[in-house]
Design goal:
This protein has helices at 2-22, 24-27, 54-58, 60-68, 87-100, 126-139, 157-172, 188-191, 197-206, 221-229, 237-245; strands at residues 44-49, 72-77, 108-110, 144-148, 179-183, 213-217, 251-256. It has one domain: LmbE-like (Rossmann fold). The chain is globular. α6 packs across α7. Strands 3-2-1-4-5-7-6 form a 7-stranded mixed sheet, with helices on both faces. α5 links the parallel β2 (72-77) and β3 (108-110). It contains 11 helices and 7 strands. With 258 residues, it is α/β, with parallel strands linked by helices. Keywords: Signal. It holds the Pfam family PIG-L. This is N-acetylglucosaminylphosphatidylinositol deacetylase. Belongs to the PIGL family.
């Protein structure tokens, strides 16, 4: 009997969490991320990731938030994900996913640099990363950068290297008017709690001073699953489970980089 009550309670909270997402536009206070007040200002945002599918697997709520509010989103992917020798396929899949996300394809750039190859054994040079990010930021008039935090959600070393590349750019050559935000990594129990983590992410962001952390709900879940399905070479059964149960499908917590 006790187990039945536990299961029913989890299902009730799960359903309540999904309702919180689907009713988000009408039932919640106005999100404040990149909100400049009554006068809307379109921002040039650069999302920096390591591999094709990072954008859909981890950053879908952020992409949905930015595109639905009219911000100008650029995507910089620093490798083609060639660990299994299918880099050209994964690059094409990334463009298809971006089309689903409503990201302009001319604003998507994928690098295939010999020193930036996908793999846990490949350490990426932070100076090289900073130089590439600098070129992209200046050429597009970027005023907001978004990337992984130092752990990189999954602990992949390439994700962490991207974080440190962005940090090096900010430290060495970034103009002061560029904001930078990192996707907060969470523990494994929260990571695989699906929409249940919405409540904990909200509480976590509320504990910090205003403007330091923002909790972004995914208001377009169907689009996120469709975008991830474009990465057909990666869309195997265990990744389908990952996307379904991953809290990053439902909510992103962004923290301001210092």
């Amino acid at each position: 009997m006790g187990w039945i009550l536990i299961i029913v309670s989890i299902l009730v909270v799960w359903v309540a969490s999904l309702c919180k997402i689907f009713l988000a536009p009408s039932s919640h206070s106005k999100p404040t991320f990149l909100d400049d007040g009554p006068a809307f200002r379109k921002r040039n945002v650069l999302l920096v990731v390591a591999h094709p599918d990072d954008e859909s697997m981890f950053f879908s709520p952020t992409i949905s938030y930015l595109t639905s509010r009219g911000h100008n989103l650029y995507l910089l992917c620093l490798s083609v994900g060639n660990a299994d020798g299918i880099g050209s396929i994964r690059k094409d899949e990334l463009y298809r996913a971006c089309a689903v996300h409503k990201v302009q394809l001319q604003q998507v750039k994928v690098f295939d640099h010999p020193d930036l190859q996908d793999g846990f054994g490949h350490v990426w040079n932070h100076d090289l990363l900073a130089k590439i990010i600098e070129e992209e930021a200046y050429s597009h008039g970027i005023d907001v950068l978004i990337t992984f935090d130092s752990y990189g959600v999954s602990g992949h070393c390439n994700h962490g290297d991207v974080h440190y590349g962005v940090r090096k750019f900010l430290h060495d050559s970034s103009p002061r008017n560029i904001e930078a935000w990192e996707l907060v990594s969470i523990n494994i129990l929260r990571k695989y709690s699906g929409p249940l983590d919405i409540w904990l992410s909200n509480l976590d962001s509320m504990r910090h001073p205003r403007g330091v952390m923002h909790c972004l709900l995914n208001e377009h879940l169907r689009k996120s699953f469709l975008a991830m399905a474009q990465h057909s070479s990666q869309w195997v059964w265990f990744r389908k489970l990952f996307v379904s149960f991953s809290s990053y499908t439902y909510v992103n917590t962004l923290r301001k980089m210092k």
